[in-house]
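Shipment paperwork, digital attachment
Item: protein structure file
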Amino acid sequence: MGCTRAIHHLYLLAHHTSPNNASQSYADQLDAIGATVKPNTLLGSIWPDIKECVNIINIDQANKTTLELASELSSAANNPLTNLGIISRLSSDWHNCAYPQSNLLADYRLQHHAQSSATDNRAKPDALLQRHARYFGNALHSALQTITETDYRQWQPQRIDEQRLFWQLRLEQMGTPVTLAAEQSHQLTKIITQILKTDVGRWILDHQHKDSACELSLLKETKNNEIKEYIIDRTFIDRETNIRWIIDYKSSQPNVGQTLESFIAEQKDLYKVQLSTYKQLFDPQQNSISCALYFPLVDHLHIMVD
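Attachment content:
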């Protein structure tokens, strides 16, 4: 791979032991090497193509020190080590070439490209400060998906505890500091253990529901001919009621001193449009649809009412 990145010159070094000696002519030395090099070696596979430009350096390793060997290498003809002191400079009148101001791909872009390009999508300071909370939420979502898809009945306390180090490693890979990742992995084990103790938690994570899916990706075309992707945390059709449930996981919890009622009212206002959009992705003629927010940290399911 390194050979393919050469720009002007490529220097390959090889060590070969052959019966030739320095008193032989250059051509005789080449013939001696060619006669003894094995064709199934790296050097043998390219020898026919490089033999005309090989620079032979005869080294008596028994009688020469490393410094002497380096000196002989650096004095060899066409060796790059002889040019280490040379600095290539641009000419004083050099200037960058002017590129034409044309949009060659305009005809191939979707209509929303110009609008999205004009939007400032840089991360806001508050979002950066909350990155560790986002990482924790991602790890929690992933854990709930794994538990659902592998049957929550298989997740006994011992298995949950054994999984803790994996969750810690996952958090660290996302960028969470080691100490915080350890604390959050312990928190994950407690949360999941508590979820699996409740009827609501087991009902949500039960993979035996009809059309059970986690992190379901759906595409929808908007009014502006823009194709948007939506990820639904959890959806299924209840076996008993035949109602399709759309459940959005939220890793938030009430602030210190905040009541659960106040917290739920706040979250409901934040996510009612989002869940309404999710609801439109499914055909209401097939099944009645109910949406809900699930807060694993407080083990609370809030059913959204239109």
